[in-house]
């Protein structure tokens, strides 16, 4: 078990700025982390890891085992974004990002969606009454179609066959479903929606469904619902207020959390935690957005998603009050944002000042 | 090869009304089909097939082989909706709907998304300038995660493992990609977007990507783009005007066509064709919505999606002018719809009168 970091000792953060706007937004996240812990909190100690497209171009390495082992020794990981158009598709995704999630057993991929006052949704106003979007997606992070169990035969010929295998285990589904029930139980509405496609993906779907039913018996006060993934996207676009906690598989979660981000004001605000709830390894916090090479180095990136990811980090490490202060500071900043653009560091400064 | 039905002889339509609101909306589709072909067109001959939840409850049958063979002898199939809450998940989907799509080689699942004047989108007005949503999704219909190649081990025990295998072939991907390019070439913007997730589903994704590149060489005037499925959903919610033709796999297509339906005014307007472009078997036309048992038999269902599916049927059978008349009649009806609800048959009557 890692240090729970609830005392006033040191928080050891492994920092992976990554590529593009990654390092810029991570700098603001760390600024806010320092500000909220200044004085009364733990000391923040950071170790920067040079991982991502730049390292791959220079050395061909994605995540050497020795680096993974060093990272394991930290209390948490803060990641910006990795990738650039010069790296072949899949290399950094499988070799770095998913390798971290799988090796460190981040089975809860936590993605809150909340429409803050002052933020404009692409949905029509009557769809999103104030407070009308406030749910959290618990996306499974270590199974499903993401396991990399695929292959291809006769590649490049007219007889090519390519397969992708979604692997789902009772072990893996049960633990994430239980985590989602716990989270639902801790929220005022106590409502959990399973999103899957059990009418077509019958084997995996029935495993998910049975598991929700059986684990649900431990949480009699939590109400459950089910939506096929296709129907869920309709409700996300027409009536997002119906959702409280959603639990779903790795791929469906990837898709619906991007819709969730879009309707809650955009990917610039969407935070995520890749969580190992038992803390057998450090959890990883990252904005949902990518490295946006087109605006890198210009101080234009919005660091808000990273700062909200820092709030998730604090919460995971048992510092719920600090997390709440960061979130409140972000909410206050968002409420007062005009249309005049501010630089990455100006936004970080403003939020840091509010938590300080 | 089936009768191309371009002359003035008979159009043999296999009709599967199905369950819930299915028979009601199909009746209006047939009403409009008769009206548009009256006088100058072919004779319409229909054969009703009793398939769906009712038959399954009564006999345990989903789609007997003899019925499938009879259906094969028709020029096209018009389907309403099948299913009710009493049928276990997957039984009618795998045993009837997908069995029809797979047996009759409906490899092009065609789903247009168009926001008609007078129709309200759940998106904010500035996202959907008039004419701002007008694209078509070409969803692969006979491969991918829908093939039913999954299984489960140690079901009901803590050691359960359930798999779902997505099977993708060059044969299957190439033919649907070529169809999508042809459709893109026939549209003013000549733009085709591949939607996949090739950074994670690397084997299938790279097959799709290479195929789009290679088939694209035959269509030098068509511009292509690529979006990961998660990013595509963001654009569907924020900037749907960017899409012209989308080609994608069976599961991604299922998901994004429901979002497409939502942003274009709802599932009550979303038409689809399950098309066998070579006409080696009849194609099947159906609204995207389900059987809606809660409003069945009340004359409340909107038959518009079915009527637009009839337009796709006419177009597929080489009767493009009739198809255009049906679509224009629907557009005119939608433009004048007030907020006062009309019955299913009143909507059908109004549209039939306009095409007559
Ligand atoms: C980059 C990619 C591998 C990743 C995913 O698919 O999980 C991303 O889309 C995300 O949602 O964090
Ligand atoms: C009912 C179901 C099998 C079907 C599908 O997943 O294809 C439906 O959602 C659709 O989109 O036509």
Please supply descriptive tags for the structure shown above.
homodimer, 356 residues, Isopropylmalate Dehydrogenase, 12 strands, globular, disordered N terminus, binds 3-isopropylmalic acid
Structure description:
The structure is a homodimer of 356-residue chains. By secondary structure, the first copy, chain A, is of the alpha/beta class. Chain A has 2 domains: 1-109 and 268-356, Isopropylmalate Dehydrogenase (3-Layer(aba) Sandwich); 121-264, Isopropylmalate Dehydrogenase, CATH 3.40.718. In chain A, 40% of the residues lie in helices and 22% in strands. The first copy, chain A, has helices at 22-37, 53-59, 65-72, 91-103, 170-185, 202-216, 229-238, 250-263, 304-316, 320-336, 344-355; strands at 10-18, 43-48, 76-81, 108-114, 134-140, 144-153, 161-169, 191-196, 223-228, 245-248, 271-275, 283-287. In chain A, strand 11 and strand 12 (283-287) form a beta hairpin. In chain A, helix 1 crosses helix 9, helix 1 packs parallel to helix 11 and helix 5 (170-185) crosses helix 6 (202-216). The first copy, chain A, is globular and about 50 Å long. Chain A starts with 9 loop residues before the first strand and ends with a helix. Strand 7 (161-169) of chain A pairs antiparallel with strand 7 (161-169) of chain B. The complex binds 3-isopropylmalic acid (2 copies).
């Amino acid at each position: 078990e890692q240090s729970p970091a609830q005392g006033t000792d040191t928080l050891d953060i492994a920092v992976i700025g990554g590529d593009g706007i990654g390092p810029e937004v991570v700098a603001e996240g760390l600024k806010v982390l320092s500000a909220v812990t200044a004085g009364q909190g733990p000391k923040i100690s950071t170790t920067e890891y040079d991982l991502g497209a730049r390292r791959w171009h220079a050395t061909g390495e994605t995540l050497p085992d020795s680096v993974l082992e060093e990272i394991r020794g930290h209390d948490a990981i803060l990641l910006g974004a990795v990738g650039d158009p010069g790296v072949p598709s899949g290399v950094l995704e499988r070799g770095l990002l998913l390798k971290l999630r799988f090796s460190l057993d981040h089975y809860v991929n936590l993605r809150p969606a909340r429409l803050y006052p002052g933020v404009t949704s692409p949905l029509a106003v009557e769809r999103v009454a104030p407070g009308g979007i406030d749910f959290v997606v618990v996306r499974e992070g270590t199974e499903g179609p993401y396991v990399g169990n695929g292959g291809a035969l006769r590649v490049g010929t007219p007889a090519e066959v390519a397969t992708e295998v979604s692997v789902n285990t009772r072990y893996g589904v049960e633990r994430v479903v239980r985590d989602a029930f716990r989270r639902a139980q801790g929220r005022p509405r106590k409502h959990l929606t399973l999103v899957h496609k059990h009418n077509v993906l019958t084997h995996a779907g029935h495993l998910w469904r049975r598991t929700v039913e059986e684990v649900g018996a431990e949480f009699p006060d939590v109400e459950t619902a089910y939506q096929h993934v296709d129907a869920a996207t309709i409700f996300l676009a027409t009536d997002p207020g119906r959702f409280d906690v959603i639990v779903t598989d790795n791929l469906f979660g990837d898709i619906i959390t991007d819709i969730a981000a879009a309707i809650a004001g955009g990917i610039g605000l969407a935070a995520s935690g890749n969580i190992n709830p038992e803390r057998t390894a450090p959890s990883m916090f990252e904005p949902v957005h990518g490295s946006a090479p087109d605006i890198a180095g210009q101080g234009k990136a919005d660091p808000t998603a990273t700062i909200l990811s820092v709030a998730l980090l604090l919460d995971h490490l048992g510092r719920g009050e600090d997390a709440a202060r960061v979130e409140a500071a972000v909410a206050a900043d968002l409420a007062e944002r005009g249309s005049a653009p501010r630089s990455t560091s100006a936004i970080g400064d403003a939020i840091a000042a509010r938590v300080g």
